[in-house]
Amino acid sequence: MPLSTQSQDDNDEQYILVASLDNARNLSNILKAIAFKDHAIFTATPNGLKVTVEDSKCLQANAFIQVEIFQEFTIKEDLVGFQVNLTVLLDCLNIFGGSTAPGLSTALRMCYRGYGYPLTLFLEEGGVVTVCKINTQEPEEPIDFDFCSSNVINKVILQSESLKEAFSELDMTSEVLQITMSPSQPYFRLSTFGNSGNAHYDYSKDSDMMELFKCTTTQTNRYKMLLLKPTTKALALSCKVSVRTDSRGFLSLQYMVRNDDGQICFVEYYCCPDEEVEEE
Amino acid sequence: MQCVVTGGNVKVLAKAIHSLSRIGDELYVEPQQDGLALRSVNSSRSAYACFLFAPLFFSRYSLPNGHDFRCKMAIKSVQSVFRSLATLEKTVEKCHIELDEQKNRLTFTLHCKHGLLKTHNLSYQDSESLQAVFDKEGCGNVFRAQPRLLVDTVVHFPPSLEEVSVSVSDNRMWFRNHVDEEERSKAMVTELCLASDEFDHFAVHAHNSVTFCLKELRGLLVFAESTGLPISMYFDEPGSPVVLSVTDSVLEGNFVLATLSHDDHSFQKNNTKGAPTAPPPPLDDFMNDDMDPYLIAMDTSMAPGTPEASSALTVCSPPQTPAANHSTRLHCEEEEEEEEETVDSDRPPNKKFRSLFFGSVFPSQMSTQPLPDQDVLASDSEEDDS
């Protein structure tokens, strides 16, 4: 294996983080679900890797790649943080074309030596090794949306299939997406207010697409359509989605993503509400 | 108004709206006694399409209480109701169309699988009746074919092609891409010949060649193919409209398309009907067309008195020298601004359609006097001419 020889040549001792994947798509796919801005904050802990992307201080996306997904995950510190350009990283991960043909996958070994060093990627496919070094940036502090499950007012879990349809049809001329969650009719409603009129998508709580329905209070909040648009990338990859709102109207969207090997990862989006809406 | 569409008819309705969107930007909705009429007309008024869904098409059909109602709305917004056309059949179980005149809303409610309810409240504008006057029964050349035949024919033309010419003889029909005169030197001509036995019905009265826009035909073909309905084609002579229609027991669709009028034919055109044995135009004749007098009209009931008058129509006279019956007709149309638009030579070069009105003459409908109350193809007037 050229890759293993390569890594032998390198002195693994010098790295504070080494993570290997037999199939780089298991990383690149999930990163695509949050790739709406260039800068991504990487936070590695012994539990795995968390990648955070933010927009306008109003939207935050986190992808969690837990330690079990990696074939090797060695971390020498409790917490390793750095920031890289996500677009560049994704380009590197797909440097062999990102073929989806079975039996043909790109192996990845990702190494980081510490503050001030580049992120080094060893990518191997069919005996060809590419080494990419991506300059790291000063890690920013991710915004704390302070979204605690104890403050969650309403929560539904839906099969992504049914939401995909709605999101693909959303009237993009509407500035906001209004989400109504209620213990009574209309239970779970997505509304848009566009040029040609308004549209409502109502999901019954008894629908077989509804895995869980736990709404205690009627809540109507609006979220900027432009902010929510990137969430469709995560939705497209996911099999289930959990929609939660807390007492302040903050929105949490959690996507369960199944990778090529059938393992499960999570992508999470937080979004600030747009404005106060009188409850109807 | 309240309509309920169920099952496969939802897709038929959606397909009809999509094919209407090939014509114009606005959808004219008019609930009538004999069914729900959906219409559209293009901006130059050279193409018009109407679908009439009979009350039996719906599982419930009720008219607005006590008064006539008609409206128009952006066709895009109606299309967005039926956006996922491919999955529509599988997902939508029932579609309610309801009118809320208080709120000026037309509400489309789709009852989908898994209890998903999609409600689209669309705003509309009041509109006048849009009614084309055409007489397909009066056309000499009548054909009917399975959609597949026309789909397979049209597929040979590039998507960029704007117009096709259709010529007929006693037992043949030719489809040919129309080439502008100035492009003749570099153009490639594609011609397909269909034998009469490929058609379900093939009746030729005059050996004519008409040229019309392909886009609208393609739109209708998509509808006809998905519903499996045969397409009928009616036309007479260059300059008078070609009518394409699909019919079954619960719906009728008519597409009325302007045809290119041949300058050099305008004098002889009135004779055509009388002399059906007149030789067919030379095959290359369409190439001699001046592209300007692409005269169109949707008013087939106009009354050209003399051959001179009709020729004046076809060359699109400037407003100060209109043929007598031309001006008369325009005046009674209450469409002055349209007329000006039509003849204003300063407007940006309109490729083909300089006139909004058909200069078409149906000899069978000729009268010697212009009628003061003539119908216009796309009348925006308040008069209900139906």
Annotation keywords:
heterodimer, A: 280 residues, alpha+beta, Proliferating Cell Nuclear Antigen, 2 domains, five-stranded antiparallel sheet, 6 helices, 44% strand, elongated, disordered N terminus, B: 386 residues, DNA Polymerase III, Chain A, domain 2, ten-stranded antiparallel sheet, 20% helix, disordered C terminus, DNA repair (chain A), DNA_clamp_sf (chain A)
Number of domains of chain B: 2
| Topology-level CATH name of the largest domain in chain B | DNA Polymerase III, Chain A, domain 2
The CATH C-level class name of the largest domain in chain B: Alpha Beta
Give, in order, the helices and strands of chain A.
Answer: HEHEEEEEHEEEEHEEEEEHHEEE
What is the H-and-E element order of chain B? EHEEEEEHHEEEEEHEEEEEHEEEHHHH
Provide mean pLDDT of chain A, rounded: 90
InterPro entries (chain A): Cell_cycle_checkpoint_Rad1 (IPR003011), DNA_clamp_sf (IPR046938), Rad1_Rec1_Rad17 (IPR003021)
Subcellular location (chain A): Nucleus
Pfam family, one (chain A): Rad1
Keywords (chain A): DNA damage, DNA repair, Nucleus
Write structural notes for this entry:
The complex is a heterodimer of chains A (280) and B (386). Chain A has 280 residues and is of the alpha+beta class. Chain A has two domains: 2-134, Box (Proliferating Cell Nuclear Antigen); 149-271, Box (Proliferating Cell Nuclear Antigen), CATH 3.70.10.10. Chain A has helices at 2-9, 25-32, 86-93, 160-169, 225-228, 231-237; strands spanning 17-21, 39-45, 48-55, 59-66, 72-75, 80-85, 107-112, 119-125, 128-134, 152-159, 176-181, 188-194, 197-203, 210-215, 219-224, 238-246, 251-258, 264-271. In chain A, a hairpin with a 5-residue loop joins strand 17 (251-258) and strand 18. Residues 1-9 of chain A have low confidence and may be disordered. By secondary structure, chain B is α+β, with helices and mostly antiparallel strands. Chain B contains nine helices and 19 strands. In chain B, strands 10-6-2-3-4-19-18-17-11-15 form a ten-stranded antiparallel β-sheet. A five-stranded antiparallel β-sheet of chain B has the order 5-1-7-8-9. Chain B has a four-stranded antiparallel β-sheet with strand order 14-13-12-16. The longest helix of chain B has 14 residues, at 214-227. The model of chain B is unreliable at 264-386 (pLDDT under 50). The A-B interface holds A 162, 165-166, 168-169, 171, 186, 194-204, 206-209 and B 73-74, 76-77, 80, 83-84, 87, 91, 105, 112, 114-123. Chain B: InterPro entries: DNA_clamp_sf, Rad9, Rad9/Ddc1. Chain B: It comes from Gouania willdenowi (Blunt-snouted clingfish). Chain B: Keywords: DNA damage, Exonuclease, Hydrolase, Nuclease, Nucleus, Phosphoprotein. Chain B: Residues 333-343 have a biased composition (Acidic residues). Chain B: Residues 303-386 are annotated as: Disordered.
